Amino acid sequence: MNPGAGLEVIATALPGGVAASKAAALVSAFNDRGKEWADEIDRWSTSIASVAKTYSESDDAAKRAFGK
Question: Where are the domains of the chain?
Answer without folding.
Answer: 9-65
